[in-house]
User: What shape does this take?
Amino acid sequence: MWQVATVADVRRETETARTIVLDVPDWPGHLAGQHLDVRLTAEDGYRASRSYSIASAWSVSSSNTIELTVEQVPGGEVSPYLVEVLKAGDPLEIRGPVGGWFVWKPEQEGPVQLIGGGSGVVPLRAMLRAHADAGTTPVRLLYSVRRPESVIYVSDLKDLAASDDVDVRLVYTREAPAGEPRVGRIDADLIEQYVFKPEDGATTYVCGPTPFVETVADLLVAAGHDPARVRTERFG
Amino acid sequence: MGIVSSGFTGRRGGGKDLPPGQYLTHEFPVLSAGPTPHILTDHWEFTVTTESGEKYKWDWAALMALPSEEITKDIHCVTRWSKLQTTWKGVSLDTLLADVETGADFAMAHSYGGYTTNVPLDDLLDGQSWIAYEYDGEPLDPEHGGPARLLVPHLYFWKSAKWVRGLVLSDTEDLGFWETAGYHEYGDPWKEQRYAGD
Assistant: This one.
């Protein structure tokens, strides 16, 4: 059930998000997109648990290392501790993996469309990594962020985008970098331009804050995508 | 007791109304596996199918014609938020099932959009569940399951199927959508039955 992992490393991703690398002696493996539960215990025994998406892919050849990326929720109970306090060498109780729906398996047929808002990119990054290890189908990531500094996995996404069958498109909602004229949320035009067509038979994964997921999923359905092929995960 | 998270104090303040492992929220988070179906009440229909295949149907007008109840209940999501004293309006399953002839032990709730969840029939009776169509005095939003959702507040909230369109009654227990994806078959928050095997 609960097991004790050890923090091997922590990596700052943005001002408010951090990747935590965990050594897990008895990790059973996971599918890209699954999450795990983290439990914190105070000195007097009080406990608090939350679920976090796993950011890394796993294969039989992987070491017993998994990565979580945690976005600090203002006023949150667990995330501020994980982002600001937890350090390399600390023990951390975890349980998982959990969830069997918002997952991508390399043997799955058809193109893969990933659409993430903010830290909703975390499980999608696991899917991209799994695809880099074993995937052969085309993948597109449409990733909505507020501003250039909000991008999680900057260098990683650049590496992944270098692959012929991976296409990464960033969307800036508040402020874009020099040379990027478009500032604004994902809309019907952008879906038309950058998302696989309904007839392409893609499976689409949408993850982000609830209003983001509601909007994007509605746009996809309005554009003719089969709701049964649109999988969503929401937070907040 | 396991390890101590050095420097962690926690927020606390949950009180006795919070099942183990839950935290209190005043918002109303959304958890759904796919796009939100937008069902017009003109097209809405609720069907109970018994183990012998007999069907009982209600359209929106028929549902509205049934005696409704004001419901105030705590709700508990498996993703760990709980919301206390939520207020709903709906029709009790006791009312809907009063004339349904069945000896079945299990029910599978089916939703517009394809979602399913399994609940023992006993957990739907005796004032324990409703077809709810108002939340906090307003028609139920689509993202929260409108026009009508199942409300079974004594179980984790994934059992309270959004966009409910019917119940299929059965002598055998089959598993629904989340129950086949690793979640607990029954889902009692007070026993912390989150995942299969808990």
User: Anything to note?
Assistant: The CA atoms of residues 32 and 143 of chain B lie 8 Å apart.
